[in-house]
Amino acid sequence: MASTSAFGLKDPSLLRHQGFINGQWVDAEDGKKFSVTNPATSEELGQVADLGLAQTKQAIEAASVAFKTWGKTTAKERHDLLMKFYHLMQEHHEDLSRLITLENGKPLKEAKGENVYSSSFLEWFAGEAVRTYGETIPSASSSLRNVVIKQPIGVVSILTPWNFPSAMITRKLGAALAAGCTAVIKPPAETPYTCLALTELATRAGIPPGVINIVPTHSNISEVGREMCENPTVKKISFTGSTPVAKLLSKYAAGTLKKMSIEAGGNAPFIIFDDADIDAAVEGAIACKFRHTGQTCVCANRIYVQSSVYADFASKLAEKVAAFRVGNGFDEQTTHGPLIHDRAVEKVQKHIDDAVSRGAQLIHGGKRLDGKGSFFAPTILCDVPKDALVCTEETFGPLAALVKFETEDEVIKLANDTSVGLAGYFYSRDIGRVWRVAEALEVGMVGTNTGAISQAVIPFGGVKESGLGREGSKYGIEEYLNIKYIAFGGL
What is the distance between the alpha carbons of residues 469 and 332, in angstroms, rounded to a whole number? Predict the structure, then answer.
């Protein structure tokens, strides 16, 4: 196990290597551990307890017992605890950001941005805790009163991805805690340390034992995930990840008809019309496509450019991308870090090779970078055919694939020709076109003349096979509440 000094934390006690059940840090019952690797150096950071099925059941039971008390706390009490949690995230900003860079690879500046974004969910849902209003409904009978109240749904299973190891935790956990639910969390095996550090801070904030339980695992992912979905004590599942895994978990949950929030795969179109501000569109494409080296679910995956501005956009984009500096996230000169692992590198290369074999032109990048770590050169492809893999699959890497189009109707059909629909983007200065295209795109979120859409206050989620439900915003807490109707008669 790596020493705490190797992490360089100001507060070494934030570094945890165990699971967390009913307020106690626990090793795996069989003593197993799994290795966590720094994707920038390919070196082991440390080893974390590899929990299994039995301890997952224990965590769910602990959450169930804790719910009997936590579910009856007042909204003001939950508000105050979430705000303490929020302030602790602010206080430990540097350490939390450092952990993100170490295990995820994103540049430290970007990691700091994630910590700010992540903590904003705690602040937002602290406020929402005291706004879970019910209502009265006028009755046709003078002796009857109709009242609607909202109650916490119960024990929640939370399964999160590695690309935002902090924000994907708080976006779900903040809403669950604010609503009065208790949680069992399976953090990603690639990035467990951030989740464990957040759990330590939640404990310091005063969140009671059993309210938050953490089940890190690597070798037992299948059985742990299944138990978190099938266990009848669990009443709600929140998952972010790929569409195939989302479908599998949905099958598991169907046996007990659990409520689910799913944020699954994306294949975001990014459209540049001929009336767009091209310089602004280039900046937006860079922010959208190359954020976290292309490893976000709302990244631009297909970049459609109208023919009359195609050459201008491609040239300006290539000039900007050529100035990128790929490297270790702790290097101040680094603009883009590594991919999470070699499998991600292989997928990007596969998409490039496929597109080139179909006639696409490579104008920048296109290969893995030499040396340690999972680094890949930011890449631009022009003249990408519409049937290339990069247009039909989510790349999740630093590959900008440019496709030429002629008309508005044509590009809307191309943009919507996918089974998923998470986010979509376009640039235009025609107000009529802005409304038409925004309404026509079959996605849950649209960025118009912007490449950045994520905020705590907005409803994050998709349509089609990109998932169910919404996270963040005033709608996010509703996913963790049951609506109960009470009829008061005999008045």
Answer: 39
pLDDT digits (tens, 9 = 90+) for 455-481: 999 999 999 999 999 999 999 999 999
- Between 6 and 322, name the one with better pLDDT: 322
Q: Which residue has the tokens 């551990």?
A: 33
| pLDDT digit string, tens, across residues 49-79 | 999 999 999 999 999 999 999 999 999 999 9
Instruction: Name the nearest CA neighbour of 284 among 297, 270, 269, 274.
Output: 270
Distance, in Å, from the CA atom of 193 to the CA atom of 187, rounded to the nearest integer, reads 9
**What residues form DSSP beta bridges with 402?**
303
C-alpha 246/C-alpha 394 separation (Å) is 15
CB distance 123 to 456 below 8 Å: yes
The C-alpha atoms of residue 331 and residue 311 are separated, in whole angstroms, by 34
Q: For the chain, what percentages of helix, strand and coil (3-state, to nearest 5) are there? A: 40, 25, 35
Amino acid identity for residue 1 in this structure: M
Catalytic residue among 61, 103, 263, 394: 263
Residue 153, token pair as written in the block: 């749904």
Residue 263 known to be catalytic: yes
Taking the alpha carbons of 146, 149, 155, 156 in that order, is the dihedral positive or negative? positive
Rounded distance, CA 10 to CA 179, Å?
Answer: 33
pTM of model > 0.70: yes
